[in-house]
Amino acid sequence: MLKKTIAAAAVSAGALFTVAACGTVAQPIQANLAASEVLQQAAQKTQQVTSYSVDLVADVTHPQQGAGKVQGRMTYQSQPELAVDLTLDTVDFGGQSLPGGARAILRGDTAYFKVDALNQMLGSAKPWVQVKLTDMGPAAEVQKYLDQVRQFDLATVTAMVTASKDVKQAGTESVNGVDTTRYSGTFPVELALQQLPAEQQERARQNLAELKDVKFDIWVGSDGLPRKLALNGAHEGATLNANLFFKGFNEKVSIEAPPADQTGPLPTNPPVQPSASPTS
Known about the structure:
With about 280 residues, the chain is an alpha+beta fold. It contains seven helices and 13 strands. Strands 1, 2, 3, 4, 5, 6, 7, 8, 9, 10, 11, 12 and 13 form a 13-stranded mixed sheet that branches. Strand 5 and strand 6 form a beta hairpin. Helix 1 runs parallel beside helix 4 and helix 2 runs antiparallel to helix 5. It is globular, with a radius of gyration of 20 Å. The model is unreliable at about 1-30 and about 270-280 (pLDDT under 50).
């Protein structure tokens, strides 16, 4: 159970991530297309993207678990094999934080993670812990973890916003030095999920289950690719406020496993924490 929990966290962490920049006024882009057509075009173009980088900052609240914040960055490639390099600089939730943040690398069916606090708890002798997903159960289980990464990739989140029925152009801005046109709208979560492949819908539904309708702003470049996506949702005390910044489309990336001498297996018998001595 411990292996499954940690590997799922390490792999599903490769999901979305972002930090921001916007600024100068640009000339209108794709003015000859309706806003909904621009989103459809963007969704089609992202299907051709095989690598990119994304920065993320996300603030969430939960009626029982409290408030939280995640901030970090991710490099992603889908070919020649699925690979993700994720760094989380800030991980706070419910008044508790993860000292030193976390880093996770996924290459094919192997995940590596570096979380200082977790390594201390597990008694790991190496800074990196390696988890072979094929050691965790049948092929269907392995595929589930890989899908948890894919369901939040660039193409997936762009496809979800095409469910909007009220999207409209909302001006022009420069994002990270790229002229973009901004589009604003909302999408019902359930309708957005229907834009995804059937095998991804249920897993994505679990991540968005607390929300109802989601407001979004998406900044699209003249090449039809999104440079920024902002998501805001709330329902019965649960809220999401996330900003993702995309760059480096189809550029060559290098996602390497940690050095072998810094990597060890997940301890099978974590040390027992000593209990407090009884007082007389």
